[in-house]
Amino acid sequence: MNIPRPLARAILFAGLAAGAAPGASPPPRCRLEVGIRPERPFVGEQVLYDLRILRRLDVTELHWERPLSFPTLRAEWLPGRVADANVVRSGETYRVYSERRALFPVQAGEQDLPNAAVRCATPGGEEIVEVPRRNLAVKALPDAGRPADFQGLVGPVQVSVTTAPEAIALGESVRLSVVARGTGNLFTVRPRFVPELEPSEVELFAHPPESARDVGRALSVRRYFAFDLVPRRAGTLRLPRVELDFFDPKTGRYEVARAEAGRLSVAPARARTPAPAEPKPRPAAPSAPAGTASGRWILPVAGGAIAAFLGLGLWLRRRGAHDPWVEVERLADTARGSPAPEESARAAGAALRAALAIGLPEARALSAEELIARSPGGSAPHAAARLVSRIESSRFAGTPGAGWSIDDVDRHLGALRGC
Q: How far apart are CA 99 and CA 50, in angstroms?
């Protein structure tokens, strides 16, 4: 006799149920397994947190009852990986999903990881499953061998440097790009130049750094730094090497990642098209003879004018020793009178920086972006810093007169003087 397949299946399940041991509980709808590597990290070292969520094949709904949260750690989400399509636990088949995080401890000591939970539902009911409690024993970085200006970076890390172009003319700029790569906490570090750049040799303008993330079995961080260098003399300049200190958790020692920037060839300034000659003034009328009435006043008046001029020069020189606005006005006059756009832009930016330095002494050394960030929004210094950014951007873009005018400079200098 042929039994229909659905009926045979029902009879089989009924027999299994009848033969089951009294009081036997069904396997859990979900299982949660936590993996941590390493369990004893250093401060700043990346920790891979891997929560494996195993659900029975009949689970129809799965969501967080209490989501993962890491308030005492820096946490970066990593895309989930399917480790295995199916696994078997205690004779039951489960599907697997991984919920992963890259964790960065910020302080030493015992760190409790979150008490999260998930809700699993099947047609026959639902249950809440707790995430197994785990903790980290975070080790402090050693004092022995720690560099004086150490920024807390845990490595290993790699540093590379590129310059473009490798040969320029005086008055032009070169872009120096630095890339740092590693699995450590690269988010806030900055490289250093060895030896430091001399302001008399090269002007340095820093751009805001940027970060990128590469996700695989762990999180890899790339940190980009860009600097515009403007040489102040022709010749061959040896650019400084770039260094970044880090702590290697495998060796337990502080190391230094280095990259050489090489040399820069700077040719004399390129010849520029001369500005149109101004019309010559008309010759003055012949002066009266010395014996006439008007001629008798020439020498006394000239002598008085010379004395007044010399006195004015002495007064200005004394005033310039105490009044910083004298330098600002001198630079602004250079910007107004220079026929070369590059020289005019350089002097205009220097005039604004000198004016800002009256209230912020470090303004001459800060990047335009740092000047903007340090001045209150809507204030005269903030607006002047934004104009500095436009002027310097136009210089480095090869269009030193674009996006600003001398009238803009005068207007912002007047606003700064009134602060």
A: 6
DSSP string, 128-150: EEEPPP-EEEEBPPPSTT--TT-
135-149 pLDDT per residue, tens = 899 999 999 999 999
pTM of the model: 0.57
DSSP summary character for residue 402? T
* Residue 47 banded pLDDT, cuts 50, 70, 90: very high
Copy the structure tokens of residue 30. Answer: 């979900």
Lowest mean pLDDT among 97-101, 269-273, 286-290: 286-290
Q: What is the mean pLDDT of the chain?
A: 81
Higher pLDDT: 321 or 389? It is 389
Return the closest-CA partner of residue 202 out of 230, 235, 167: 230
CB atoms within 10 A of CB 383: 17
Residue 328, SS3 per DSSP: helix
| CA 275, 278, 279, 284 torsion-angle sign | negative
**Domains in the chain, start-ordered, CATH in brackets?**
27-138 (2.60.40.10), 157-267 (2.60.40), 319-417 (no CATH)
Element (H, E) at 409: helix 406-417
Strand order in the sheet with 117-122: 61-66, 117-122, 125-130
